[in-house]
Specification:
Helices cover 76% and strands 0% of the residues. With 139 residues, the protein is mainly α. The chain has a single domain, classed as Four Helix Bundle (Hemerythrin (Met), subunit A) (Up-down Bundle). The protein is elongated.
């Protein structure tokens, strides 16, 4: 007897799907601005040549991408974890949504060079994913 798959996607998994799209946005935004600075030949080449330092916007977008790539695995572990072990709840769905919203807001703030608020948004997003990790590990 085959088991039935759930018909509704848990919020936590929906958030992960959108998080993957957000990763593509990070990569494409940083790549676009670097290509604007260095040119299409640089983009389509081996990128072995020495290039001048990045202008502020592409440099910030590249740092924002790196930050997202550093923290995304934590979210993946937390969100997949609560889903796999059956600990999803309204709390984990809300925390996942807050994490995602924070990460979406973080990118333009970082790209625009907005100080302090960007860090506050990062902190709220990080706290939200820590809530999910807490549910996974202890609650």
């Amino acid at each position: 007897m085959a088991s039935e798959l759930p018909t509704e996607l848990p919020t936590e998994l929906w958030v992960l799907g959108v998080a993957a799209i957000l990763l593509l946005v990070h990569v494409l935004a940083a790549g676009h601005y670097r290509t604007r600075q260095y040119g299409r030949d640089w983009n389509m080449g081996a990128r072995d040549e020495n290039v001048p330092p990045l202008d502020p916007v592409p440099a910030r977008l590249l740092r924002a991408q790196a930050n997202y790539q550093e923290t995304l695995p934590i979210a993946v572990i937390a969100l997949l974890g609560v889903t796999v072990v059956g600990k999803t709840s309204d709390l984990t769905a809300i925390a996942a949504s807050i994490w995602l919203a924070g990460r979406v807001i973080y990118l333009p703030l970082y790209g625009a060079g907005v100080p302090k608020v960007r860090t506050l948004v990062w902190g709220v997003a990080t706290l939200a994913i820590l809530v999910v990790l807490g549910v996974l590990l202890v609650g």
